[in-house]
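Task 17 of the worksheet. Students: predict the tertiary structure of the chain below and write it out as structure tokens. Keep your answer in the requested format; marks are given for formatting as well as content.
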Amino acid sequence: MWSLPGRPSSFRGEFSARIVVLRPMTDKQLAQLFCKEIGDEAKAKTTLATVLQNESLSSWSRRPLHAWLIARVARQENLSALSNNAAAIVRTCIRFICAREENQASAEVSRTGPETKEALARTIGV
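Model answer:
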């Protein structure tokens, strides 16, 4: 049996699956997630206060993925990087992920031997 997160009225019995309704996170759950992800209790409390003061951000933060994105920005940047524009937060997180991937890729290449680097260069046409 599968579990599908979603709106029960959207499926109308089309699937033989248990429907799980995602409920918005509470302030307490946000506080716990921020504390765990940021790792600094004072900064987590300040992040929560910042989020709760902004109606748009508060509403958007109630899904676990969105709350995690906010925590990630707050941990790696500063609270001024949190805007009421959810797209800006997502863009910032994408930049973090791309930078991490680039660092991992360059670390992989530097660990390979010269013959492997030459083969890789020939493969990609450099």
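Marker's comment: Residues 86-111 form the longest helix (26 residues). The mean pLDDT is 77.
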